[in-house]
Design brief:
- This protein is of the alpha/beta class and 320 residues long.
- The chain has two domains: 132 residues, Rossmann fold, CATH 3.40.50; 153 residues, Isopropylmalate Dehydrogenase (3-Layer(aba) Sandwich).
- Helix 1 packs across helix 11, helix 2 crosses helix 11 and helix 6 crosses helix 11.
- The longest helix has 19 residues.
- The two termini are 22 Å apart.
Amino acid sequence: MESQGPYCLTEAHEPGKRHRQLVTAAQKFPPIRTAVVHPCDEASLSGALEARDQRLIVPVLVGPIVKIRRAADQAKLSLEGIDTVDAPHSHAAADKATAMARAGAVEAIMKGALHTDEVMTAVVHPETGLRTERRISHVFVLDVPHYPKPLLITDAAININPSLDDKRDIVQNAIDLAHALRISTPKVAILSAVETVSSKLRSTVEAAALCKMADRGQITGGVLDGPLAFDNAVSKEAAAAKNIVSPVAGAADILVTPDLEAGNMLVKQLVYLAGAEAAGIVLGARVPIMLTSRADGTLARTASCAVAQLFVHRNRSPVL
């Protein structure tokens, strides 16, 4: 059976097991210094401290120190030995964390008790933000009970209606993350409602164009196929029923959705109806960004830290 890095594909599924394997894989490397933005509630503060205890990150708490300490007292958490940077409110905390990342003082950013758009507004600022030549996008890493390996889904959080050029970067970001997770040649399924190209469905035309971009070296490091419907991407039986012959069909590592709405609904359906565990990070900026949700549990937060840590380590040592 094909190797998938730290993941074991042959044993019976155990909820959260692949995420715990991610944590174990990341613990082999030094923790990364991470700005935790506005960790002023128990969930975000305990998640950061748990990731510290798991040797994944060295947290720097950025926000109103009085509120952070109050949250720590209410949760009975000790802040001894942890660096803090005072900022008067959430917007200022996001700006301060971004400035720290620009200066090289931290290697990652982790969202705390504030809205995603507050963090991303600071990150994408044209003068003081963290933009690179690559389009910024989000990649979910899911442990789905009935799928035999980790499943990456993009973009379900940042790009609302991406263009073809945006999708090229979205795909490349996801491939780069898959490499960091030791998936050597990820299989990338470009999703649509059907598996044939039709001028009436823009997503099918763009899927075909992305595959040709891969043929021409504009996208590297993975095997692409599309358009593929969701069932054809994850089920060999469904692909065989439609006579689809493809190295990707039925075995996708990465699902690229047509737009944010489709991606967001797909991820939430897998989490709330299929019992999937979700982690993920934002890529394409100067540092990875963990946009953990207020509804995320401790495992989701620590797994996201593990993903970011593995990605940072790969960029330090790209041959590993």
